[in-house]
Amino acid sequence: MANLRFNVVERAFKKRPLPVEVPEMRPAEYYGKLVFNREKMYKYLSLEVYEKLVDVIDNGTRLDRSIADAVAQGMKQWALDNGATHYTHWFQPLTEGTAEKHDAFVVHDGKGGMMEDFSGKLLVQQEPDASSFPNGGIRNTFEARGYSAWDPTSPVFIIDDTLCIPTIFISYTGEALDYKAPLLKSLRAINKAATEVCQYFDPNVKQVHANLGWEQEYFLVDEDLFFARPDLVLTGRTLMGHDFAKNQQMDDHYFGTIPERVQAYMKDLEIEALQLGIPVKTRHNEVAPGQFELAPIFEECNLAVDHNMLLMSLMKKIAHKHSFRVLLHEKPFNGINGSGKHNNWSLTTDTGVLLHRNGKTSEDNLRFVVFIVETLMAVYKHNGLLKASVMSATNDHRLGANEAPPAIISSFLGTQLTELLDHIELADKEELFTFEGKQGMKLDIPEIPELLIDNTDRNRTSPFAFTGNRFEFRAVGSEANCASAMIVLNTAVAEALIHFKKRVDTLIAKGENKTSAIIDIIREDIKTCKPIRFDGNGYSEEWKQEAYKRGLDCEPSCPICFDRYLDKESVKMFELTNVMTKNELLARNEVKWETYTKRIQIEARVIGDIAMNHIIPVATEYQTLLAKNVKSMMDIFGGEEGKKLTESNISIIKDIANRIKTIEIDVEELVNTRKIANKIESQRKKAIAYHDTIAPKMEEIRYQIDKLELIVSNELWTLPKYRELLFIR
Length: 729
Hints:
By secondary structure, the chain is an alpha+beta fold. It is built from 25 helices and 20 strands.
């Protein structure tokens, strides 16, 4: 058994990178090659059909089904020209992954043969089995009908021989069973609410878009070593493993030279990503050994989410080619940094960037303040819900650790912006603003010009930090679907803007000047949302106490955090903006609780199996060797001298025996505790039971196993150790 581990490690260290087939063209020339973008649309569609489809994409007009056949024929021809033989509706069910069913471009010709075909009906709508995906009770097993419907705003693309069509996924009764449908509704809500507020300052604004730039962190592990660790294979993380002497404490991996094998993988990944229209730009080593990051250029939020989901699939596929396995689990290794997916969120209009600080006019500057404050209002009012949107059984291991944002949502603004809001709040309105004829309002605030430069540090402990012209939501997990957090954030900001406009309009209706009314409401909201602003150390115990005093959500339990989705204010917000109904929220929470339980359940089974089938036999074998050594020594030396010479080994034998006994008792208790929890009918109560009773018991077992790893002979230990898993050669 031991030789097997050594052989696996030796093979991993001898591997050389595969040669990367780099296209002769420059990246800009093959970017989007496998995407049915506007260039391809213009080539394969008639001008009339092209213009109608572009109008749908750009202006949100309803798709004219009369053009669906023409679009489908154009798509099919382009796909065939690029070697595709099949098509699929590509959607994002509540599994955190993507789903697809491939069909060939063929139909019977009625004469005993077949012909290539693809109709508008097949493009626009299909019928996957809605009962076979997580649905939280919306669909019963005998109620299988569900629909996937084409999302024209996200371009189709080709993977291998298949044309992939991004779609939403809904039940027969119309409820969303995916992430895309509510995301699109949240984007529509923020577009409407933000546009109406923007028109206070510029009547020419017709649309507001939410943009997203995600930063994808991940680990790479040699494939042979991966398959030698059952816990990695089955759960995505190491359920045991002792710290090694050197990990990340020297800070020498972050931004260091990228290992040759990893560089080859990254190049291959970038080439395929660029051909699929994913605008990847940045790559580098992250803090932990074996950890890396990839980030693209900002995109429209819906497209960015699709691209991130596609990229995660690509990462796994290409890693296999290079004899790697990608770990997207938020905390695959204990004691070193985990992986997140920072979501950089911003708003733009068809005339410019809303959160830009270098406004050319006084109206621009006031508009900037309005959108900053109303975003803070959204985060303050729904801070618990925002936390719930990023919570999961996997991200639970990362949040709150000294490597990631704390499990308390707050917002860092920096010195300049903080002082500006404080100044607006405390100063007399007459001192702040004067008016100059047709030029409109002029801000008489010294801080405004200073906002043109970044002369304040960034707070890496803040979950929601303002970083120039965007907010960075840093608490999102590495393997999460970005849509979960973006749905809540977009909807919450939309609600804040709706309430802002309603109050401003009320003051205007009473005869107050528009600008004065805006200032009154902004000053009121600055005071209201002040508790969410925090520029200090989010890891400190003092902040936890202070956050509690401020009324912020400090709940650490993941299953209980999910309750925030069903709070009265949350349901009201989602229904006001027409993003989700209460029934959809109830169903999603059932899925969240059930998914949490299953994750912990699988981990509990795996750690029990490994403990009994790997750890205890190896520890017992080593214990037997020591016992034989003690007997031999006593036979040779005998008496007091023999006792002294064998004292150390006897102590180790006893230590191993005690730890084995503890593990056996803990595993039995773990099984019994799980049986009790499994009898609980309520998904919520069952998830809480798993969190409170089963997860802690797993940590107790891990503690004993990790101690045994230090005691048992290295030659006998069967599982690859951290020092072997994390350092790529």
